[in-house]
Structures are given as structure tokens and as C-alpha cells.
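DM from R.C. (forwarded with permission)

"hey, sorry to bug you on a friday — could you get me a structure for this? deadline for the figure draft is monday and I only need the backbone to look sensible"
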Amino acid sequence: LHPLDTLTARLQYDAHRIKKASPIANDARFIVKILTNEPASLYSGVGIALAGAVPQALVYMPTYTLCRSAGLPNQLASVVTGAASSCVRVPATLIKARVQLKLSASASAAWSSATKLRGWRGLYDGWSATVALAVAYALVQFSALEFFVSAALAITGAAELPAGWDALVGLCTGAATAVATEPLDVVRLRLMANRAFGYRNVLDGLERVRVEEGLAGLFRGVLPRLLQKGLGSALWYFVFVRVRAALV
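My reply, with the result:
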């Protein structure tokens, strides 16, 4: 799914299209251009993405499961999960994004560029936006997950999700969450990649995008992200349910 992530990042960041009248049509042309001229570049940053997936996975679902087991309500457990995961997510995501966007030639170059002026703090550019996105994503995701699980159980009449339904629940959850959090992801990516856009913070970024690019600008790259999060969540929840059942 990494090529979809790269397409999303490039569509969200591509500055020269900002004030054009039809962002959806421009997005489609941009996707065709990349697929035609440089398909191999869609795997830029895949190494750091793989390396960053491990610590992220070790924090994300275990934190949520622990919070729910401790009796915390879904909303609070989601907030804690989003905040905790963002602490380990930001450096790897920042380096990956700069390689994907060709702002750095390699992961090591991206690391050097990020730390050159501000040391380790440079690895946390866009941290506040990432926290906002992570918390919002977790809130929407786990609320949607509980809703779709309940709906699936009601439809099937089973006590547990039948085989295949867990993947369908994950797909619906990922798709709904991707659309709901796309505006935050656009601003987060631009804050994290570099300071070229001049956004002061998340709220300023959201307002600037709305004014300069219109509401459609807040949803740049939503199609590949919708596919990525939908398919990724289908795999995520299917594997999570199956592995947890095998270990209990």
C-alpha cells in the first residue's frame, strides 16, 4: 500500500497547483503523470516506513486495549492512544515524507536536514499537527469500529464476527476515518515536510488552505488515501482479530 501513501503525500503537498480552479481534475492528471513517467518513485521512503511501522504497532492497539480494559470510555481511550502513538510516529513519518516528496535524496539525508539547525527537535516538526491528527483519527476510527462491529453482529446474528466480516468492518472503518480526517492530514503533511507554506499552526493551516484553495483544497489526495486506509484497515483489523484469538 506504500504507493498509495506516496501519491497522497504528493497530491497534498504539490504547491504549484494551489490556486487552480479544478483541484480534483488536477489531482487526476497528476496521478496519471506519476504512474506514466515515474512509477518506481512511488516506493520512495518504503524502508523507513517499514522501520517505523514496528514501534508504532507496539504502541497503538496495545494502548487502546489496555485503556479499555482499565475501564476508560472509548473517547478517552482513543485520545490516549492517539497521543501516545504520535510520540513514536513523528520522526519516522517526517523522514519518510521528505523522501517521498523528493525534498531529500535518502533517509540519511532527510535525517541530517531535519536535525541540522535544531537538533533532535527538528525531527518533531509538525508534532502538534500529528497529535491533533492522531487523536482525531483514533476518535473517529474506534467510534466507527465499535459502530460497524455492532452493525455486523446485528446483521449476522452471531456472537462473534464470522470469517470475512472482520475485514469488511475494517474496510468500512478505514474509509470513514480517512474522509473525516483528510483536512488535518493535508495540513500535517505540509507542516512536517518543510516550512515553505508558512503555516503557524494547525488552525492557521486549515484556514489558509480554505481561503487559498477552497474547501476542495482540504481534501487533496483523498482518493488514494481513502484506498490506502480502507484496504490497510481491512488487513489491520482482520489480522488483529485473528492473531488475538490465536493467542488467547
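R.C.: lifesaver. The chain has nine helices and no strands.
me: no worries. Residues 127-156 form the longest helix (30 residues).
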